[in-house]
Write a structure and sequence with these properties.
Elements (H helix, E strand, L loop, with lengths): L2 H27 L40 H14 L1 H6 L1 H33 L5 H33 L1 H6 L2 H23 L3 H14 L8 H16 L7 H13 L10 H10 L18 H6 L10
Helix pairs in contact: 1-9, 4-5, 4-8, 5-7, 7-9
Length: 309
């Protein structure tokens, strides 16, 4: 495939990814405040997270400075991100394939960082013996990432298909996502095995993206892998795979949000704004008519069962 066609198509796919990713992430960040209740334990509670305690148990807590344990929070996050701790505890059957699947993605993410650094260095003319380490490291990281990811994708597909409960609750798009990821891992393995200069070809492709070099051509396997990777990136922001961004808000803005509400604060103003929104729920026991606000409904005297007034 000609370099001009591949580079121009890659620009288009990357543009879709960047715009869609930013828009989707911004929408997640602007979502209304969650239903605020205490979800213990909160890892940043210094000296209390192990037993599910809270600063609220302290006498006159509002007069005392809050102490947070950043190290405990980082430790909790590392276990969840790197080892999928919650999945191990609650759905171990799925963990056996989900762990290598995610490990493969992490290794390929590391390759991506190396490629960006290498591509930038080549684009501005930086060279040196240190880049020899990068070119030798790339095939190792990429090969391990492709293999682990492929094993995980096939295992997750088979597990979800074979388990009746999972098959009934798994949307067809989830199977499609796994097939697309398997294509990404498989095309990467094909490119790695078929090219004796895998690192050099990958770096040449990434450098071409930085320099807009439109001359020459790329080998078939590498061109296919680059296209599959571009399609995957462009598709990613529109899918549930954006959960790696949503998880930040799930943990830090929902599960671990124990910030006290003080009168006149930004949090206080946002909550009051939400409380005065009209409610249009259809459930009869709520008594919503599209005009009453949450405050009015919450402070109404409950009607005796069987009455309408």
């Amino acid at each position: 495939m000609s370099a001009s066609a591949l580079v121009l198509l890659s620009y288009a796919l990357l543009a879709v990814f960047v715009v869609a990713f930013v828009v989707r992430a911004a929408k997640l960040a602007k979502m209304p405040i969650h239903l605020r209740w205490e979800l213990a334990p909160v890892p940043h509670e210094k000296g209390k997270s192990e037993y599910g305690g809270s600063y609220l148990e302290e006498p006159d807590w509002w007069t005392k400075p809050r102490e947070k344990d950043l190290l405990s929070e980082i430790s909790y996050m590392a276990k969840e991100i790197l080892f999928l701790k919650a999945l191990w505890e609650h759905n171990r059957r799925l963990w056996w394939f989900s762990f290598p699947f995610h490990a493969g993605l992490y290794l390929l993410s590391a390759c991506f960082v190396l490629l960006v650094l290498g591509g930038l260095a080549h684009a501005v003319g930086i060279s040196g013996p240190g880049w020899g380490i990068v070119t030798r490291l790339l095939p190792v990281l990429a090969g391990a990432g492709y293999l682990l990811g492929a094993v995980g994708a096939v295992g997750l597909f088979a597990t979800r298909l074979a388990d009746r409960d999972m098959a009934n609750s798994t949307a067809p798009v989830t199977f499609f996502n796994l097939i697309l990821l398997l294509a990404l891992f498989g095309s990467g393995l094909w490119a790695l095995v078929s090219s004796p200069v895998f690192s050099r070809e990958l770096l040449a492709y990434v450098t071409a993206l930085f320099t807009a070099e439109l001359g020459g051509s790329f080998r078939g396997a590498m061109a296919v892998h680059a296209l599959v990777a571009g399609v995957f990136l462009a598709y990613l922001p529109f899918t549930q795979m954006m959960h790696f961004v949503a998880k930040y808000f799930t943990y830090h803005k929902v599960r671990w949000d124990d910030e006290p509400v003080t009168p006149g604060s930004k949090l206080d103003r946002e909550l009051k704004k939400l409380l005065y929104q009209p409610v249009s729920w259809a459930a009869p026991h709520v008594g919503a008519d599209g005009r009453k606000t949450w405050v009015e409904i919450a402070t109404e005297t409950p009607r005796p069962e069987g009455t309408t007034k």
